[in-house]
């Protein structure tokens, strides 16, 4: 285990891309968690102020990201927005895992008829382009943060179910599972000690890296008006709030969007690196001095 | 000496891995004569594959040549530029690898791949290449060459695929063929057939064969000369019958001891005690020292040189003098 | 290369099954999930009579399977409900908006895929160098940007501030009238060329370039990343090393062999990529006021026009399924191992 982690950091140091991603993701988590406690103007952030004299102020030392049409400081709003994005990211991915993993496990482990039926069901959900199902669900369930999380999770779980199914199927046929069975271990132990950890590791990694996409999709829903509602300072919502005033105050839309980009970028960079690291063959080539002879 | 076509001199190669450096070979030196078939024998990690890959110019990207040279005529194969290397790869030196399915591109027909090899190396036209491809497929014992040329790799069996690989590698009539455990993944019957095939080709094409294997039985059948490797160095080499009947190096002795004999009643299978050394550090002294029951102090401190005790036979062990 | 009748039939059955699945799921969402479906259907400003009428129309007093029957029958007959916002049938509204969206998506997607794959190849061949890092960052950036934000920024910079490009619609109406342009296929680029109407052609391009570019960034980033990843993967495969050992020149190995092996999974992922493009089109159409399905959907969302929302959802899902089928067929054509 330790040597794996050491190897991970050796390669990461060599790879600027991965390092940058790592820093961004850590920053996102940290800011997301502590943001309510570090706000300089909490009332602005939570949206309850209306300061006529401070409306539409461009970025300055006092207001690094400017102010919006209600005179609220955008910097504070964006910082608080990190917390909501974090809640959404964890909520969506977590809920999708809770829904999808058991189904994938059952389908994969029992295989045969039940497995095929469950997967066909999953396929039906996957027939919708990403986010479309979430839009339909959000339109039906109503707006708000909770509904947005539920809508997104309901459109995401099929991915994880399918991923788990494929993983379990692969692992099930691995020689070490046969070996365990031959050694006399019962199904239960085999499932929990051997199949599960190996099958779920890629899924968990994928899910962690998917959090970036969750932030992106939630922002999209908010922008279309069916996600988070004002005055919650979710980044997507902030961008849409700035849309009407874009010609007089470009900063209202710009900075929240920038926050989204940086966060999602961090996750995506890590995902790129993780993909290559996971494959042992490719890991070797990360050390190659002259690539491809 | 004019019969010698390949000279490997003091070859030392390491692999860079995230876990550190692996010293795959250290100071390997030997010659290959024209038409000679040599078997490179050793356990996993002995460095035999690395030597073979180096000669075939097929080393993975994280391999580094620390020292040494491989001379083909007066050209050092290790220090060639990209475009010069092509003159020898495939044309003069070719290779057959272990997994016959993995070494063929699944998206292209056998015919496409074979003709590309022939057209690139010999400058033939497409029709000429096709004809020659058919010819060599027949040579390796495949009965319906036209159908094979039209097929995709996943449509053929393992034994057939390995024959196809051999056909491709030999179709350019190279002078040296490196075979890296070509029969390891095949069933015993196919194994025997492929070995026979190699013998035929050897005679037919006047091919020097470098046959890498961990199987002593296979080695004895196919080779004129055998080179035994351990932990990246050559410990013994010589004519195959001599070495296998009268082994000199303690490792070779131990290796042969391990081979179970049907007609002798043995209670337990023998093995050599201990483990191969950790290759992430350079080794001081004889690499076999801590498993050798005849080791002495000098063995642990100094590395024994590979010396010719009898013409044609070399050993790297302090037990023997020139 | 023949795909085999059996395989095609199998895929077709799968498509029908998928379409059925889409309808079932949307049925559950629209009729089973909500507590009072007729409220959603009649809209937020409906009168009591309208709500009662909706109840009858949706056959809500009958058992579920009867409702399902009416639902499916309604769809096949083209009765997708009436948009209370536009007071016209939903299906008509969707069909008239379809060409605009298709033209935009196809244009954007083509740019995205071609450029993306090229960038991916270059990055893979120059792995671990500066070029690779730049391309990687660029493509990852493209895949990290919210489309709506980028659209707003581009609109602000190029249209409002610099005034280089128009900010809305597909074509200048006055130009259409003065040159006598009329749509034939609904694809203005093709139509204008067919009529030899170059001023309109240029004008349509001017209107399309900004939304298309914005829309193409995400799939371009995805394609580049995937192509790079696949190329890097493939260049390690044993059959590449053996090809080089057997003397095939590096250029041929890379551009003929490795490329095909790398592109196969990229093509498989194009379906999903296309899905993202469709969703991106919603936002882009909204911001650039492009009269397509995305705009129709976005406006419906803003005004709670439920029948229109669901109609748009269904038509997009159906379209997506067809695209996926096509992609799968192309993939099987390239990779013979899939044709079993």
From TrEMBL, chain B:
The GO terms describing molecular function are: ATP binding; ATP hydrolysis activity
Q: What's one Pfam family here?
A: oligo_HPY
Q: PROSITE patterns, from UniProt? A: ABC_TRANSPORTER_1, ABC_TRANSPORTER_2
Positions of the ABC transporter domain: 6-256
Which of UniProt's keywords are assigned here?
A: ATP-binding, Cell inner membrane, Cell membrane, Membrane, Nucleotide-binding, Translocase, Transport
Q: What is the topology of this protein in the membrane according to its UniProt annotation?
A: Peripheral membrane protein
The protein in question is named ABC transporter ATP-binding protein
What is the originating organism of this protein? Thermofilum adornatum
Automatic annotation (TrEMBL), chain C:
Q: Name one GO biological process term.
A: transmembrane transport
- InterPro entries referenced in this protein's UniProt entry, alphabetically: BPD_transp_1_N, MetI-like, MetI-like_sf
Instruction: Alphabetically list the UniProt keywords.
Output: Cell membrane, Membrane, Transmembrane, Transmembrane helix, Transport
**Pfam families this protein is in?**
BPD_transp_1, BPD_transp_1_N
- Give a yes or no for keyword Heme in this entry: no
Keyword check for Transport: yes
State its location(s).
Answer: Cell membrane
Domain of life, source organism: Archaea
Topologically, how does it sit relative to the membrane? Multi-pass membrane protein
Gene3D superfamilies (UniProt xref): MetI-like
GO cellular component entries: plasma membrane
Chain ranges passing through the membrane: 12-33, 104-125, 137-158, 204-222, 266-288, 308-334
Residue intervals of the ABC transmembrane type-1 domain:
98-331
User: What PANTHER family is this protein classified in?
Assistant: DIPEPTIDE TRANSPORT SYSTEM PERMEASE PROTEIN DPPB-RELATED
- UniProt family annotation: Belongs to the binding-protein-dependent transport system permease family.
Q: What is this protein called?
A: ABC transporter permease
Q: Which organism is it from?
A: Thermofilum adornatum
């Amino acid at each position: 285990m330790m040597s794996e982690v050491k190897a991970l950091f050796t390669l990461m140091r060599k790879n600027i891309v991965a390092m940058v991603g790592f820093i961004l993701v850590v920053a996102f988590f940290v800011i997301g968690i502590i943001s309510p406690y570090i706000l300089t103007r909490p009332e602005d952030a939570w949206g309850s102020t209306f300061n006529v004299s401070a409306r539409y102020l461009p970025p300055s030392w006092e207001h690094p990201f400017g102010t919006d049409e209600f005179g609220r400081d955008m910097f504070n709003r964006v910082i608080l927005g990190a917390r909501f994005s974090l809640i959404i990211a964890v909520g969506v991915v977590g809920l999708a895992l809770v829904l999808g993993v058991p189904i994938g496990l059952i389908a994969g482990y029992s295989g045969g008829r039940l497995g095929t039926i469950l997967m066909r069901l999953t396929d039906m959900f996957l027939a919708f382009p990403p986010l479309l199902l979430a839009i339909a669900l959000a339109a039906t369930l109503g707006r708000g943060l909770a509904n947005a999380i539920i809508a997104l999770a309901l459109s995401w779980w099929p991915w994880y179910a399918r991923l788990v199914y494929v993983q379990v199927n692969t692992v099930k046929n691995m020689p070490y599972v046969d070996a365990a069975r031959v050694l006399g271990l019962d199904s239960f132990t085999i499932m929990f000690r051997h199949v599960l950890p190996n099958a779920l590791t890629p899924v968990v990694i994928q899910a962690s890296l998917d959090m970036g996409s969750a932030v992106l999709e939630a922002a999209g829903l908010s922008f279309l008006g069916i996600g988070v509602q004002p005055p919650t300072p979710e980044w997507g919502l902030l961008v849409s709030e700035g849309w009407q005033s874009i010609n007089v105050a470009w900063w209202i839309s710009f900075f929240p969007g920038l926050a989204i980009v940086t966060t999602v970028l961090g996750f995506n960079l890590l995902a790129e690196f993780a993909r290559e690291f996971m494959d042992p063959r490719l890991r070797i080539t990360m050390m190659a001095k002259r690539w491809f002879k | 000496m004019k019969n010698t076509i390949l000279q490997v001199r003091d070859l030392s190669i390491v692999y860079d891995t995230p876990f550190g450096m692996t010293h795959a070979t250290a100071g390997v030196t030997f010659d290959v004569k024209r038409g000679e078939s040599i078997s490179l024998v050793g356990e996993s990690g002995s460095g035999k594959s690395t030597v073979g890959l180096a000669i075939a110019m097929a080393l993975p990207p994280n391999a580094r040549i620390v020292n040494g040279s491989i001379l083909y005529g007066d050209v050092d194969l290790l220090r060639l530029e990209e475009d010069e290397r092509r003159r020898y790869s495939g044309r003069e030196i070719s290779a057959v690898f272990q997994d016959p399915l993995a070494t063929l591109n699944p998206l292209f027909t056998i015919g496409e791949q074979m003709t590309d090899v022939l057209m690139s190396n010999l400058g033939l036209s497409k029709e000429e290449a096709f004809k020659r491809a058919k010819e060599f497929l027949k040579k390796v014992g495949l009965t319906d060459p036209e159908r094979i040329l039209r097929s995709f790799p996943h449509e053929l069996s393992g034994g057939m695929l390995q024959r196809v690989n051999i056909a491709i590698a030999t179709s350019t009539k190279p002078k040296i063929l490196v075979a890296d455990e070509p029969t390891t993944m095949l069933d015993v019957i196919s194994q025997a057939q492929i070995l026979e095939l190699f013998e035929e080709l050897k005679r037919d094409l006047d091919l020097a064969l470098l046959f890498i294997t961990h199987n002593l039985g296979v080695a004895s059948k196919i080779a004129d000369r055998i080179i035994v490797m351990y932990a990246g160095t050559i410990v013994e080499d010589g004519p195959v019958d001599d070495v296998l009947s009268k082994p000199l190096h303690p490792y070779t002795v131990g290796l042969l001891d391990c081979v179970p004999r049907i007609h002798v009643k043995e209670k337990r299978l023998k093995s050599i005690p201990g483990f191969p050394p950790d290759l992430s550090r350079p080794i001081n002294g004889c690499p076999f020292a801590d498993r050798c029951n005849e080791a002495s102090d000098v063995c642990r401190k100094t590395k024994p040189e590979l010396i010719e005790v009898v013409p044609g036979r070399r050993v790297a062990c302090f037990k023997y003098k020139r | 290369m023949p795909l085999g009748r059996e395989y095609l039939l199998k895929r077709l059955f799968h498509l029908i099954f998928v379409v059925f699945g889409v309808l079932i799921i949307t049925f559950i969402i629209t009729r089973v999930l909500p507590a009072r479906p007729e409220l959603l259907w009649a809209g937020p400003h409906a009168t009591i009579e309208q709500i009662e009428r909706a109840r009858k129309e949706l056959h809500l007093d009958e058992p579920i399977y009867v409702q399902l029957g009416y639902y499916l029958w309604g769809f096949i007959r083209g009765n997708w409900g009436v948009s209370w916002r536009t007071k016209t049938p939903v299906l008509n509204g969707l069909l008239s908006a379809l060409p605009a969206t298709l033209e935009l998506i196809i244009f954007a997607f083509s740019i995205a895929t071609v450029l993306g794959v090229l960038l991916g190849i270059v990055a893979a061949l120059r792995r671990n160098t500066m070029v690779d890092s730049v391309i990687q960052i660029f493509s990852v950036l493209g895949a990290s940007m919210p489309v709506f934000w980028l659209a707003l920024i581009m609109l602000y910079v190029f249209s409002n501030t610099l005034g280089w490009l128009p900010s809305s619609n597909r074509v200048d109406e006055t130009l259409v009238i003065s040159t006598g342009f009329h749509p034939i296929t609904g694809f203005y680029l093709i139509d204008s060329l067919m009529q030899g109407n170059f001023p309109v052609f240029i004008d349509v391009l001017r209107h399309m370039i900004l939304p298309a570019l914005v829309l193409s960034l995400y799939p371009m980033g995805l394609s580049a990343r995937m192509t790079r990843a696949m190329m890097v993967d493939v260049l390690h495969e044993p059959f590449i090393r053996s090809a080089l050992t057997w003397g095939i020149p590096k250029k041929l190995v890379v551009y003929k062999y490795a490329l095909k092996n790398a592109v196969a999974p990229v093509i498989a992922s194009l379906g999903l990529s296309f899905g993202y493009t469709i969703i991106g089109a919603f936002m882009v159409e909204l911001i650039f006021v492009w009269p397509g399905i995305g705009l129709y959907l976005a406006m419906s969302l803003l005004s709670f026009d439920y029948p229109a929302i669901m109609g748009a959802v269904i038509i997009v899902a159906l379209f997506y399924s067809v695209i996926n089928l096509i992609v799968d067929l192309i993939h099987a054509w390239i990779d013979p191992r899939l044709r079993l």
